[in-house]
Amino acid sequence: MVKKLLHNIFFKEILKGLKQTFSHYFVPEVTIQYPHAKLPLPATHRGALCLLNYEDGKERCVGCDLCEAACPSHCIKVVSVVEEKDNEVIRYASNFDIDITKCVFCGFCVEACPVNALAMTKMYEYSTSNKRDLIFDKNKLYKIGETCYTEAKQYLVAHDQEEDDQVASEYRYRFPSDLHPDSN
Ligand code: SF4
Ligand code: SF4
């Protein structure tokens, strides 16, 4: 009874709480003041997808549809075109759309691509109030690829898909007319 009375008189619980609070003044801060401060992300980070060009500016994507087939969320739509122009046969994606609202960032599409045309970046700030803005079309994907080129290359290297530009050019698909320019 006396013990309980003393306990109440000296507000022991409040003192215990204050001690706990003040002890945190001496603990290093762990909170990051986002968006003013940002944590560095690893090269393996799975952010926004992008499409890449070769060093000479040519599109890597040959519109083979393998990424579309590999996507578990069915959020990629590729429309391919085969054209013959000046004795040269080319195949490319005339339309390439990714519905980011459905994407689960698994990276399967990047792994499935035989020419490393797709990659992931560290870009993650693209929230919007308009859902339609989250359908990334071909232009937007190539634009992200240009802006985040270094990160995209780092992603491919970190995932053992590419070492450097020389390896990338070895993956490059050669159309028959490229290999035998005089055959037509
Ligand atoms: S990261 Fe996964 S879910 Fe997203 S588009 Fe690629 S395969 Fe589909
Ligand atoms: S991104 Fe790669 S897998 Fe997808 S259509 Fe283009 S070449 Fe094929």
Kindly describe this structure.
The strands form 2 sheets. The protein has a 3-stranded antiparallel β-sheet. Strands 1-4 form a two-stranded antiparallel ribbon. The chain is built from 8 helices and 5 strands, in the order H-H-E-H-E-E-H-E-E-H-H-H-H. By secondary structure, the chain is α+β, with helices and mostly antiparallel strands. It has helices spanning 2-9, 12-23, 66-70, 108-112, 138-147, 149-158, 165-171, 176-179, and strands spanning 49-51, 76-85, 88-99, 118-120, 135-136. 33% of the residues lie in helices and 16% in strands. The longest helix has 12 residues, at 12-23. The protein has a domain at 49-176: 2-Layer Sandwich (Alpha-Beta Plaits), CATH 3.30.70. The mean pLDDT is 89. The structure holds iron/sulfur cluster (2 copies).
Give the termini separation: 105 Å
The CATH level-2 architecture of the domain at 49-176 is identified as: 2-Layer Sandwich
The parts where pLDDT drops under 50 for at least 5 residues are none
The proportion of residues forming helix, as a percent range, comes to: 25-40%
Helix-strand makeup class: alpha+beta
